[in-house]
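Anyone able to model this chain together with magnesium ion?
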Amino acid sequence: MATPSNFQMKVTEGQLGYVLQDVPHITDYIPNLPTYPNPLRSNPAYSVVKQYFVDMDDSVPQKIVVHKDTPRGVHFRRAGPRQKMYFTPEEVNACIVTCGGLCPGLNTVIREIVHSLDYMYGATKVLGIDGGYRGFYAKNTIPLSPKIVNDIHKRGGTILGTSRGGHDTVKIVDSIQDRGFNQVYIIGGDGTQKGAAVIYEEIRRRGLKVAVAGIPKTIDNDIPVIDRSFGFDTAVEEAQRAINAAHVEAESAENGIGVVKLMGRYSEGQGGLFEYIEKRLKENGHMVIVVAEGAGEDLLAAKNEQDASGNKLLQDVGLWLSQRIKEHFSKEKKLLITLKYIDPTYMIRAIPSNASDNVYCTLLAQSAVHGAMSGFTGFTSGLVNGRHTYIPFNRITEQQNKVVITDRMWARLLSSTNQPSFLCHKQLDEAKKEQGPQSQLMGDATNIA
Ligand SMILES: Nc1ncnc2c1ncn2[C@@H]1O[C@H](COP(=O)(O)OP(=O)(O)O)[C@@H](O)[C@H]1O
Ligand SMILES: O=P(O)(O)OC[C@H]1O[C@](O)(COP(=O)(O)O)[C@@H](O)[C@@H]1O
Ligand SMILES: [Mg+2]
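re: yes, here you go
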């Protein structure tokens, strides 16, 4: 018998190294379910579209840069409407929950799930779970209808509320079973998707006809596989406003320094900063430093505290860095500087999403609804190489994206901001080891701190 984790991904191999990392389907554990024609067939808007339905065999490659001899590699199932439905509109009893930290676009995703269920599939029974996972068993539900959600995309946050901690799988699935939910839409970050995976496994263990669909969110791009999260575009736009403000402040003072903290728990890099600041001030008269919240954690006094979800609580690196810079230049260098520290982090994640993120949220939500109506379960709806796909939970939760200071993206950042790499010998050696004999890292291409 398969172990629970084997339930999360179905692997099919094809020719020339083709691998499909497929998501589960309700018929994997409840065979012989009746099917129904997709109501979109008789929807005037869709019935005229040639090839509106996605072919059952369509898949999307994870890697699109290939050589002539490279195996075809890993693929994910393409998202979209299917011909056969496994739920009738009257049968659907859906719920939506939002968990973890805020991110621009949460309300848009909620709105679009409600709209898609109703406008595309005629399914009108949808409830919101109040306040994250614990809301399943500790709070009341929130009624949702197209009318109720009509305007919510213009607001930041989530109308359902959110929380950290409180994930009790058995109590959550008891509540799903007692309330008769058969489609569960779970919007949240890496922790939330881990929670969704165990909810799906427990539902499967109990043999319930319930589709579990995840919609990934991250303000700091720590979720692997997907191109980017909804809200990212909005966050970049809002972060720019803080950076611009820091620049104006810095430019207006002699030896002005603006420090801006942005979200990003997983960051690396150290050494040579003070020397570089001094050089830059001499050349330019002012500078702006953008620091990720997770940077330099090893340099700050250890706190070893966790939030309710088990995430490490971070110290304020922006404040720490600002103090260290001030001390260094006043005590050691006797150089008069004016430093302004801006922390826009919570402002960034609490604003409503911009137009481009709204489009993205809409498509993600529609994909999730198409997937659940077609009987898929245990999947995260995500963009891979610009195409919407269904990704098995284990691929989303197996690791977290980290900032890699030896990759092409970091190199582009360094050249566009004209800053040194701050790589030290040890990090260079480690990077070379990771890249193996094919390493293109040159000793003289780095700035040794
Ligand atoms: N490994 C896990 N298994 C089950 N539930 C989890 C796990 N990690 C986190 N969760 C739950 O997911 C929810 C959100 O997690 P959190 O880390 O706070 O935010 P995010 O999903 O944004 O990363 C919380 O209610 C938490 O209890
Ligand atoms: O104060 P809170 O709510 O714990 O949020 C702080 C954390 O939330 C985030 O914004 C997002 O983290 P999650 O994706 O885990 O929700 C982190 O960047 C940040 O460290
Ligand atoms: Mg997280």
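The CA atoms of residues 251 and 286 lie 6 Å apart.
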